[in-house]
Amino acid sequence: MFIAVLQPEDESARQRAELLRKYVMPHKNLIYSICIKYTYNQEDIEDNYLEALANFFKYMDSYDPARPVKTWIYAVTKRLVADLNNRNRNRMPPDDNIDISEISSSLSDEDEPSGNSMGMDNYREFYNDDILWALDRLKPIYREALLLQQAGYKLGEIMEITYNNGTLQTRNVETVKSRIFLAKTQLRKLLTRDGEKRMD
């Protein structure tokens, strides 16, 4: 996963961005090393690192400067990675048989993300210019699958939505996984691990 950061248009977001630059970004290598150390699956390290940065941005104003910053960063990152490991462990295995009726009945509203305010119609509000530039260079079917995952949909839900949208010919989770994988691979070529456009 890549970093999803709201543009700092309001005062609160500006303050959090400033605190993030001051306290967290000087220690981004520490965060990355914690992700390497505690992430179960090697392929999730980059995603967990970007999730950690997004998490720090979201809750930056809760940091107490009286606390040692490295201790705080270590504790927060380790706890987040543990949560992400648990979430990723519950992902569908590649050979899992999917009960379509079960998935359909679990969807509350296919047009709204699961417990998230980001959707296909407003995702541009949630990413910085460099990430939007990279997203615009993805094939639409890859971008759609990735953004649905970022919005909080599970693989089975993404399969149903893209099938109903006509962008998936058959209900096949492996195709969805492949599209997400290819989208992330392409984004890593276009962006640095901090979500900035590569200059090389």
TrEMBL record:
GO biological process entries: DNA-templated transcription initiation
Q: Where is the RNA polymerase sigma-70 region domain?
A: 24-88
Do you know which Pfam families this protein is assigned to?
Answer: Sigma70_r2
| Molecular function GO terms recorded | DNA binding; sigma factor activity
**Stored InterPro entries:** RNA_pol_sigma-70-like, RNA_pol_sigma-70_dom, RNA_pol_sigma70_r2, RNA_pol_sigma_r2, RNA_pol_sigma_r3/r4-like, WH-like_DNA-bd_sf
> What keywords would UniProt list here?
DNA-binding, Sigma factor, Transcription, Transcription regulation
Q: Where is this region: Disordered?
A: 86-116
Family assignment from sequence similarity: Belongs to the sigma-70 factor family. ECF subfamily.
Name-wise, this protein is RNA polymerase sigma factor
Provide the species name: Bacteroides uniformis
